[in-house]
User: Fold this.
Amino acid sequence: MSETVSERLAALSPSETLAMSQKSAELKAQGIDVINMSVGEPDFFTPEHIKTAAKKAIDDNFSFYSPVPGYMDLRKAIAGKLKRENGLDYAPEQIVVSNGAKQSVCNALLCIIDKGDEVIIPTPAWVSYMEMVKLAEGTNVLVNAGIEQDFKITPEQLEKNITPRTKALILCSPSNPTGSVYSAEELAALAKVLVKHPRVIIIADEIYEHINYVGGHASIAAYPEIKERVALINGVSKAYAMTGWRIGFMAAPLWLAKACNKLQGQYTSGPSSIAQKASVEAFNGPQECVQEMCEAFRRRRDLIVSLAKEIPGFKVNIPHGAFYIFPEVSYYFGKSDGERTISNAADLAMYLLEKGHVAAVGGAAFGAPEYLRFSYATSDENIKEAMTRVKETLANLK
Ligand code: PMP
Ligand code: GLU
Assistant:
């Protein structure tokens, strides 16, 4: 029997964030005390009131297929959240609930991209965007925004990269992997450019909305001139510590919501009924938990930034949201401990994992090969111990 996978699959890179996390788990299983700062997920447990709602949903026999775009009460709860927190008007029919924000982004791309359509992705960017564009047979147009510009693209950069083939822009704020946050003014300036290009759909990934240390969240969907072209993506994973429940959503113009509904109807159906009922409680229930977790992340951000700045050769930007630091580490390229020479950030991440037992992710998968990503969604003790190990391990490289 032929064991040849499709060209589409062969061209796909595995998720580097999940791969590093897997390696870290393997070392842990061998009894090695690894501190895993590779995968980005809150280390908190899902709040009690949300778990109670899920248990009730089981007892109430929510065990049947749900409507493909999600239960109406969940879509109403999401529309309520968008109005209350973001001042945005969406009808429940414009909302499609999926298996995590990951599927929502992929759905949107599969529904709008034809072969060869260009998708502008400001880099550094989350590892999966580029691979999803490849799956949709689109062309990635990576627009680099380095540490010197706080990892944010300028309106001029955006304008310069729009061509007649541009079909979409993926904008992530607060950003994974950099933690940068676009202000309302910066978004307004980007929106001004986009107004001139009516073919371009804006995929706004706002999954880190609530992990923001500079105050109110600004959404690019708030600009009425372009709102009809925004696919707003969000979910419960990060704000409510619900990564394993797999609930995300897209709020979009009706035509796009209908398209995602059709797509989802053929390859996943609606997401888990129990997780949906838990998510209704997440959006409608008490919100103090969100604030408390954000405060904890802010404290950890301050801690890790102060410790990382002490590490020779690390150029550290101050992240204003999400839970990652993304230092520039090219100082170590070409250095050796006498046995091993570090050529790039992937080598450095592997060196830190094997010698220092700290798992981070090399920047290449984020389109930024001179950087390393550390997730600080872990305890203060782990952060202190990890940064000590990193500093000591890197001191061996001359
Ligand atoms: N977008 C970004 C930027 C992310 O970091 C993540 C987390 N993996 C996702 C989307 C997907 O989140 P979810 O767990 O809801 O699929
Ligand atoms: N958002 C997380 C990360 O970037 C989860 C893993 C993933 O889906 O990529 O690490």
Remarks:
- The longest strand covers residues 166-172.
- Residues 15, 17-18, 39-41, 102, 126-128, 176 surround glutamic acid (ligand 2) (CB under 6 Å).
